[in-house]
Amino acid sequence: MAHAQARALADLLDFNADTEFGRRHGFARIRTMDDFRAAVPLQDYAAHAPLIERTAAGERGLLTADAPEVYFTSSGSTGAHKKVPVTPRFMSTTFMPFYFAAWAPLIEHFPEVLQRPDAVLNLKHDPLTAPPTTADGHPHVGASQVDFGARFGEPLSAEPGTGAPWAVLPVPTDPGDHLERAYLRLRLAVQSDLRCLIGINPAMIAAVPYQLNLWWPRIVKEVRDGTLGGLPHRAPDAARADQLERLADYFGTVRPAHVWPRLRALFCWTTGVASLYLPALRAEFGNDVTLLPAPVAASEGPTGVALDRHPSAGSLVASAAVYEFVPADNDLTPGSATLLPHEIEAGQDYHVIFSHVGGFYRYTAGDVVRVIDRVGGVPRVAYAGRGVRSDAAGERLRDAQVVRALHTALGSGGLGLRNVACRVEPDTDGTPRYVFAIAPGSPWHQRETARFTDELDRALAAESAGYRHARGAGRLGRPAVRLLDREAFTRDWHTAVGTGIRPTQVKDRLFRQDDALWQRLTGTASGSAPTPTR
């Protein structure tokens, strides 16, 4: 691990020493990790942005010695679209080794996913025929919209499912109508024997059962008529249409497990909020379906990749980037002291910081990871949430703490949920309190809800000293629960996608303080009373 990290540091310093950033920070004089930490402060995207924008306008030799071929887009936590420069050297030394490793467990343990081009429904694959470009003329698109083979000469880089009949839609569509494009892919996929769904963003997979039921009459009619989006497509298939109708009539609903009974694997992030709902959601796809964790990564660079069938953790990509960590309860500043991979401890949460040859240096990606264990001396980490905190009264709650508290409270009463979000609202006496909007897996009795709320309060206090002190001092009130119907979060996700946001970018968000978005989710006026829990 240490040798791989030293090589990664030496490579990025040597390759980019003569860039504007490299000269400014004395890359040519740096020899050790301590030198690097002394020369370069911790930096977020905003600190990198001026040189990125100049690069996108056509200047060269600013952050990297080679020119970007494409810019990945990322919504980030603020919703602003980033420009992530992607260079050939970054692809060959950082991205591609990580990328190929990410698919290895799926292909090794479920080889049938590659036996036919239509065996995989890759929900994130959405290529554009006319992608937007930056001022220097290079595409500015999501990573799922890049043809790595054509752009970077990687002929083996095609993801599973990218050769399916629906990978490039055979009928004209509005590129911004993401819901119609999702419908067309599902309509085609119901006539195939799927073995795997790839979503990366688990909200996309969670939407599939809802979408099948929402669009079912239209899907069946088009299968029967041989149309796609109302246009002639292939021979009518009355036998399959009859079979699909019988499934719905017999079961009273439509589940992916009914439509694709030989489905074997789901590939997506399995931690964070998704860890609360994925175990129950898996039954929609089949009890024998395996959940495989997608890598821990940002558009700006990789962190961890699963090398086996562990349900959540991936090993640091030691040869791809230089990694540093800061305890998650600490605030990040440009001068924050950092830990190296050999210094972090299992069972602890950390801000992750990476540097790589593609031009991101001591980059604070905004993600928190939890160290699970070590394999061969290399830490295995799981995504634990965003690094942002909710802090109304000194409680400084993080995503990971709330998710763990929810697990504890749900387990104490044997309850399940389909999704959850929370925000701070004033209680009747004006004291701030956390209100949790929950879509239950099955109806909760009033007594169950009250007991859950008590357990959640205790679990939050156990997870966070700040929460415990704020509650004890009376600065923070008892949490409350607002129960929603089971499809509330999926409807809200569809509404967001319907505004033109790409589905990959509409992710689960635990903390939702925006009044309009909260009202859209809950269907209630801001500040109205939650469902009683007493």
Give an overview of the whole structure:
The protein has 534 residues and is an alpha/beta fold. The chain has 16 helices and 21 strands. The strands form six sheets. Strands 10-11-12-16-15-14-13 form a seven-stranded antiparallel sheet. A hairpin with an 8-residue loop joins strand 11 (301-305) and strand 12. The longest helix is centred in the middle third of the chain and has 24 residues, at 202-225. It is globular and about 70 Å long. The model is unreliable at 525-529 (pLDDT under 50).
Annotate the secondary structure layout.
Blueprint: H1 2-15, H2 20-24, H3 33-39, H4 45-56, E1 70-74, E2 82-86, H5 88-109, E3 120-122, E4 140-141, H6 148-152, H7 178-189, E5 196-200, H8 202-225, E6 227-228, E7 231-232, H9 238-251, H10 256-259, E8 265-268, H11 274-285, E9 290-293, E10 296-298, E11 301-305, E12 314-316, E13 322-327, E14 349-356, E15 360-375, E16 378-386, E17 389-390, E18 397-398, H12 399-413, E19 417-426, E20 432-440, H13 446-463, H14 465-472, E21 480-483, H15 488-498, H16 515-522
Parallel strand pairs: 1-4, 3-5, 5-8, 8-9, 20-21
Antiparallel strand pairs: 1-2, 6-7, 10-11, 11-12, 12-16, 13-14, 14-15, 15-16, 17-18, 19-20
Helix pairs in contact: 7-8, 8-9, 8-11, 12-13, 13-14
